[in-house]
Amino acid sequence: LKACSRLLLVAFPSRQAAMGSIADGKATALLLLGASAGSLVTYQLMAAASQRPKTPKEYKSAARARGKPELRLCVVNCQDDGPYGEGVMPCLCSLMEAALPEEGWTLIEYRAKLFELPSNEELDACDGVIIPGSASSAYDDEPWIQALLSFIRQLHSRQRRTLGICFGHQAIAQALGGSVIRNPHGLRASCHSFPLSELGRALLLEDGRALGVQEGMKLLYHHSDVVQTLPQGAQCLGASATCPVEAAAYSDGEGLSHMITMQGHPEFDIFKGRACLEKILQKDVREGKLTEDGAEGCRGTLLDPTHSVEALRSVVKHLWRSPG
């Protein structure tokens, strides 16, 4: 397609059918979606074919798989610009290297804002999915978010093993019937701890006695929204005074968790992640979201020890290396 793609007018009986049909992002489309009988809601979808790679970009570990098959994960990147958009994949790679130094792995990047979502065949070829953060809100009525929520419902119905981080944590709750709101406590940016439930300790920490976990699990944060209520069947793994749901697990009918989500950013704990968070704080100050004093307060916690590496290692064990 040329840069000035033609408008494609298509009528669909449902929003879900429409979102599934435009996931290839081959055209700029003006979709008329049936919101209810006799009514239409208009969305303008901007997805230029020139921006889509022929194949998703892959990031590979330095180590080769030894004794275990290579871990292959689809990463649905939900931020395409700014410090986090530029840093999220390098940050996740650094976290994977720290958590799995002797294992082979590949991260396969899909860009949600360009309607790049893994097909069933691509999901079948992978061990699981990671949905990381975004500057957007899960309750925003944007076409790419609606497509993402529909995709999450498919992941859940097929019990695809998924890790949700920050926005991913919120989007999974929103997609499956929970609620996400603006945090009444405002932007939370720094290192925080929260108490874990018994299930939370089992799923997020390989050794519940490590790093003084009795005092709470510690992660680095940067978010303005929170999950207010979880969908039916989901379990809260921990809560705090400023965040009703710090982490959650979604299970199948037999109680085995196939989705684990957390509000914190484990990928911020590595050197590249802390550098990325510093750039985000600088941007927050420039845009008036944080005062300089507030940013300094956050910087003062950046070197605090966290459970990020242990949490990812435990997620890998329970989600992607589990024999079930």
Write up what this structure looks like.
- The protein contains 9 helices and 15 strands.
- It is an alpha/beta fold.
- The radius of gyration is 20 Å and the shape is globular.
- It has an 8-stranded mixed sheet, sandwiched between helices. Strands 1-2-3 form a 3-stranded mixed sheet, with helices on one face.
- The N and C termini lie far apart (44 Å).
- The longest helix has 18 residues, at 82-99.
Main β sheet profile: 8 strands, mixed
Put simply, the count of helices is 9
Secondary structure: number of strands: 15
Determine the strand fraction and express it as a percent band. 25-35%
Envelope shape: globular
In percent, how helical is the residue content? 25-40%
Which secondary-structure class do the elements indicate?
alpha/beta
Task: Provide a concise account of the structure shown.
The protein is an alpha/beta fold and 324 residues long.
What key phrases describe this protein's structure?
8-stranded mixed beta sheet; 15 strands; single chain; alpha/beta; 3-stranded mixed beta sheet; 324 residues
